[in-house]
Design a protein that fits this description.
By secondary structure, this protein is an alpha/beta fold. Helix content is about 40%, strand content about 15%. It is built from eight helices and nine strands.
Length: about 270
């Protein structure tokens, strides 16, 4: 079974072997790397992107990138476009950092992403960082993206503790697309988050409501040195999917097919 980890952070100096070795040990075929965060500086964001680009360029058949950007920084729309069009990033990562997607000053950024038909991964749910920032990361704010229908976006962590709100947004976006799967903008990234006593039901609810085609596997691991539990995450989630009675094809869709579709290899 092909496995893609859609959610791995770059947290320091790393090279391809720091990623590929743990991937091989866990049976993971592809990892999507998220560039380091930067909250205020366009120049530092660019440096972070170039560092991550060098990392995934070293093994383009197995590594891809998401460019972590703060759209409130002046000039960020141009840099995000460059990341996707020139640097080879598969998409954009955003944490709403004391702003929401509904902030009208960001409309130009979303217009640019819409023109690019960009693929976005949003942090949604509780945020263990960025001071008291969790309230800006509620999934319901992403409803506003229905005004930019060429954007495709995923909500990370099943938006825990707002898992049902995440599914409500999925339903809203499905309705906005006229129930046409080709036009449905939203997806669910099932990266933890969710504590064990909630995870089983949250996954079952998401699969039942959205279908495996809208769900993608991830671990929230990190490099260098933060992929030691990747294989454990794979085994745990696959065991749950088997318990739910999913077919091998449905399980593989969650474990790789959705991420390959939403964030395809750029090179």
């Amino acid at each position: 079974m092909r496995i893609v980890d859609c959610h791995v952070h770059v947290g320091g100096q790393a090279d391809a072997k720091d990623v590929l070795g743990p991937m091989d040990a866990s049976g993971v075929d592809r990892v999507i790397l998220i560039s380091p965060s930067e909250r205020t500086s366009l120049a530092t964001t660019r440096e972070n992107l170039l560092t991550t680009q060098r990392l995934f360029d070293a093994a383009p058949d197995r590594l891809s990138g998401l460019a972590w950007v703060n759209p409130t920084i002046d000039g960020m729309a141009d840099l995000a476009a460059e990341a996707v069009e020139t640097m080879g990033f598969a998409g954009i990562k955003i944490i709403p950092d004391h702003y929401t997607v509904c902030d009208e000053r960001l409309d130009g950024f979303w217009e640019r992403m819409n023109a690019l038909e960009a693929r976005l991964l949003f942090h949604t749910g509780i945020l263990y960082g960025f001071e008291d920032g969790s309230r800006f990361c509620r999934p319901v704010y992403l409803e506003r993206l229905l005004h930019w229908p060429k954007i495709r976006f995923a909500m990370a962590h099943i938006s825990w503790p707002w898992c049902e709100e995440c599914l409500a947004v999925m339903g809203r976006m499905r309705a906005a697309a006229g129930y046409d799967p080709a036009k449905w903008q939203s997806y669910v990234d099932i990266t933890p988050g969710t504590p064990p006593h909630i995870r089983r039901q949250a996954l079952a609810n998401a699969i039942d409501f959205c279908g495996p085609e809208r769900i993608m596997f991830g671990t929230d691991g990190g490099v260098p040195g933060g992929l030691d539990r990747q294989g454990e995450h794979v085994r745990r989630d696959v065991a749950l999917f088997e318990e739910f009675g999913l077919t091998a094809r449905q399980i593989e869709r969650i474990m790789s097919g959705t991420a390959d579709e939403v964030f395809p290899p750029s090179r």
